[in-house]
Amino acid sequence: MNDHRPKPGLASSHDHTRNNSPLRWAKLHQQVDSTGWLPGYGIALLASLGVTLAAMPLSPHLDHANIVMLFLLALVGVAARYGRGPAVLVAVSNVLAFNFVFMPPHFAFAFETLQSILTFAVMLIVGLSVGQLTARFRHQVQVARAREERACFLYEMARELSGAATAEQVIEVSERCVATRSHVQVRLLLPNAQNRLQPPVTQPGQPDIDLAIAQWCFDHNELAGLGTDCQPDAPLLYLPLKAPLRTRGVLVAALDCRRLPLLPEQSRLLETLAVLIAIVLERVHFAAIARDTQIKMEAERERSALLAGLSHDLRTPMTALIGLTDTLALALPAEQSPYQDSLMAIREQAQRMVLLVDNLLDMARLQAGRAWLRKDWQSLEELVGAAVRLLEQPLRDHPLRLALDPELPLVDCDAILIERVLVNLLQNAAKHTPAGTVIGMTARATGDQLTVTVWDEGPGLPVGREQALFEKFARGPVKSVVSGVGLGLAVCQSIIQAHGGYIHAANRATGGACFTFTLPLQTPPPLEFSEDFDPHPT
Prior knowledge:
- By secondary structure, this protein is of the alpha+beta class.
- The protein has three domains: about 30-160, no CATH class; about 165-290, 2-Layer Sandwich (Beta-Lactamase), CATH 3.30.450.40; about 370-520, 2-Layer Sandwich (Heat Shock Protein 90), CATH 3.30.565.10.
- It has helices at about 35-55, 65-80, 85-100, 115-160, 165-180, 210-220, 265-330, 340-370, 380-390, 415-430, 490-500, and strands at about 185-190, 225, 235-240, 245-255, 375-380, 400-405, 410-415, 440-445, 450-455, 505, 515-520.
- The longest helix is centred in the middle third of the chain and has 68 residues, at about 265-330.
- It is rod-shaped.
- About 30% of the residues are buried.
């Protein structure tokens, strides 16, 4: 299948109307119409003969100028009704009849004298000029009427399509309007998610569509099929639906005049229909996207409000539960009480619940845009130490390897939120790796950013879903027995992005998973000393 641009349509005069349709499809051109030229030329000869016979009794009472006017009147009538060709024939026949009947010697052609030659030439020139002007005026009237009908058709079709809300409605309205008002069958082919055109449901009496040609038309965004450079012998014409942003499909038209070149009027009208349908399809596409986005936003807003209210109500009783657990643990001697293990288990589960509630509150604040960063110059070593102390129980079965650069600079960040990120990443590694698995953390300063990596030697992350784990309520394996609701990583991503950094997950080459986040580094302000401070005491 060659990739060539279609040739422009051949110039032609206006084509005949068909059933008063706004689409003027020409089965045959006016100049080669084998069924329409005989009546016009025959009536032209009869008109010339009739004027000649009518003027013969009046010739004694009329001068030659008045008789010429009668011939011109017949010429104008024939030109206005039948066009340019019959007008030329009647002009020539009028001149010959006038010379033969009314110029002396009568009933004989006389071209010997200068007067007869001048009369013949003037009548012929005037007749041809009047016939040409009248035929041109008739043609312009037909063109204006056809354009008016085409504009009305496009307006009615645009009005019908304006109420379409889905792609299926656009297909139904387009095919019905064109078939009803133009008696031309058209089909719309739309692509799927993989940009492959879907075959339509073929009904009896409808033409068979070549999907290969249609796909080529869609991929190359050019005309194909009947009368084009791509498969010109095909029985159907394929037009791409060119929208402002992309091609939305293919319009397939079954034309009546399969043996003639595509006329310019036909080509322009089909291209206009294709553009109109493409714009409507694009509007429907973006309307569906906006509708889905609005639904998701409403659902997210309701879910955030529910989570915020629920987590706020749970925060107080969970804090009280931890306090009561600590009180009981202190009141019961560890050597004599058999309930120490149960108390520690209750305290650990209560702390996990508190962390979950904190994640819910942080996510609700970040989603609502009400989280203000309380930044200050912090030492990463202190933040890591606080996170490890908070996770003393969850990390008791995992060897922890810390590799922090001793020359780490201070970081301008919100200490509570960054500590929450470290706690979530370490707890996530402890929850999803078997007991005894090594968990590590590395930190180094590179250029203008601080890079922190939390890694483990566990089973790793699901392949292809590394970044999907940062979505809200997204978890690892579907059948995982590890408790959680899938908010920890989403909270981490929101906090890091609020600080101007980024976070990503990956599988290690030696096995296990690693989570890396960055924080921007800035130059800390100079230290200010009071006047009484002595930097070199004796």
